[in-house]
Task: structure prediction
Amino acid sequence: MNCPRCSGFMIPESFQDLQSDTGTLSFCGYRCMSCGEIVDPQIASNRKHRPHLQARNRKLMSH
Ligand SMILES: [Zn+2]
Result:
């Protein structure tokens, strides 16, 4: 899989979302080794319903 932003190499990774309303939520996605872009199939499908996604992504990338 290649990064949609920079076409860099992406590695599969699991993330933990402590901000979830249901408590700890872990999900699998891909992280770009070049620019740090995170792609998650589940979030991508919900993107139109979650306008605050960008802020959450930045928080995840700081880990
Ligand atoms: Zn990238």
Residues 3, 5-6, 8, 32, 34-35, 37 surround zinc ion (CB under 6 Å). The chain has a mean pLDDT of 76.
